[in-house]
Predict the structure.
Amino acid sequence: MVSFKCKDIGMDCDFEATAANVQELDEKIARHAREVHQIDPVDKELWMKIHKAEK
Ligand SMILES: [Zn+2]
């Protein structure tokens, strides 16, 4: 299992996601970024931050 918290990349947001693998987790994060933060697409630098925060 892998998990991610928006807070871990400095967002003022309570979003937390867990998934069976990183690919699935990235899909959930991309959807959340689009729907809640109006970030579409997530750029390379932000993905680097996100991947560092994934556990
Ligand atoms: Zn968020």
